[in-house]
What does this fold into?
Amino acid sequence: MKQVHVTKYSGEIELYDESKLRRSLKNAGAGPVLIEHITNQVQNKLYDGIPTQKIYKEAFRLLKSKSQRSAGRYKLKDALFELGPTGFPFERFIAELLNRLGYKTKVGVTVQGDCVTHEIDVIAQKDDHFILVECKFHNQKENRCNVKVPLYIHSRFRDVKRNWSSQPGHENKTHKGWVVTNTRFTTDAEKYGICAGLELLSWDFPKRNGIKDLVERLNLHPVTCLSTLSDPEKKLLLEHDVIFCRQICEDKDLIKAAGINPRRINKIAKEAVEICNHRDEV
It folds into this structure.
């Protein structure tokens, strides 16, 4: 295969790696025959310098024409951006991920630090382990969290930790600060987070345990993955705190309660169930 360079969201240029496309299609549930078909079709449209977004759109179009279920899972990254423009649905999304990992969570909590009060996006507790989570939601793929973000969050966390550690009953409890983003961290931000003892969570960090990995593992896809929903319908569901496909699987009446046309309920619920009851295509 002739070497072709692609242009990433960041403007960086790199060699086209078909294995990345194959892996993402496989993770979405596409089977070998469908993967072969899509990669061959994409190969025919490649040219030097092609934007990765154009490759993604073509692969998504082909996947959607064959499997709506796999297409919904394939568009996870874009679906996370559609949780905006505010960051609150993303905070709910992260809280639920932590709930599924065994934590009890609260969203949007004001806590007293040693010096000042702080608004904490998510507080999670499991046994004697407490974590304070700051969520940084970005509306643009090219936006990354630079080192200033963990620096700032670390100072806030230390202020809260000093106060909490002095409270009766907290002497033997552990406290951890997290920074979570729907995009990526810069290299310096990752280095500082590791050095300072902060937990960093992004789209693909830590490796094999980033947001995309957790969503697949916990089967917790956002409703914005659903291609049967229009943009106004997605907004209605998010405004009514319907963040996950699993919520619809558990109670499809939530669709009607959000103000969506009752005649659309069965079609939307059917796709939600297909995404939740994931199985690989042939």
Observations:
- Residues 221-276 form a domain with the DNA polymerase; domain 1 fold (CATH 1.10.150).
